[in-house]
Amino acid sequence: MKQLTCEMCGSTDLIKEDGVFVCQSCGCKYSVEEAKRLMIEGTVDVQGTVKVDNSAFVEKYLANARRALGKDDWEEVERYYNMVEQNSPSNMEAVFFSSFGKAMLSLTDSEYYKRQQKFDVLNKSISVINDYYEETTEDKEKVLRQISDAIGKMYAVTFVYNTKASGLTVGSRNWTIQLMNSARSAFLTELKQIQEVHKDEAFIQELIDKNATGKPMTGCYVATAVYGSYDCPQVWTLRRFRDYTLAETWYGRAFIRTYYAISPILVKWFGHTEWFKKMWKGKLDRMVANLNVKGVEDTPYEDRNWF
């Protein structure tokens, strides 16, 4: 008896919808011609060593995983990259992003220690990047840049600030930033190990410099969108004002936390639009000018760890 079996997950539960066959287990779609190829009958007696080519599985899973990554759908990111990793255990992209999806999901968990567990897994996945660097067939530069960008993106995500532990309210922002910093530090270690062998690959030094400075960790999101850089005189001024004026009082810190909860979302939605930049630029220009008059410097600045 003939049986239609999904190449991706092995399920036989495929239904024809809108002219294509759709696997009800993993969602993969097959054209009529592909479905004919998948039709199998009976069993095959194979002797000796058989090498299974699962490249088609990997490519389809990767396509689904990357779509989920583009939408910040962390559950699907974790799910599909896990599938890739199962079929291609040394795939750097899958090894990192399967655990990265877990870590990103943990940021909305009210228990800090659950976040720590997920970030421990993430750091372990980062720690094997150097091991897989030589054997992977991926575009190595592209994958390392993706990982670097993803780690930087963590700092712009809104997460739960407070949690309950033993009946006490515990401020978790500092802890969570430290978890993010640990991931960046682990990645930096791997980059340096790779560089020892591949000294001629200039992009590695570029990524080392980027992750060594660690910017932006607590960024001025709106100002960065308006002025086009985290490191420019206007943003240096505003960062100093944040760290040495606002952060000195409880209500100033409350304002900063509220700003960090809202501004990343606003910038994600509207930061690329001209009307958004125009609306804020005049206000920020006046604010920066007033701060400069009051003595706030506009020279290069490293963020203060105030939280």
Automatic annotation (TrEMBL):
Q: Which InterPro entries match?
A: CFI_box_CTERM_dom
* Superkingdom of origin: Bacteria
Q: What is this protein called?
A: TFIIB-type zinc finger domain-containing protein
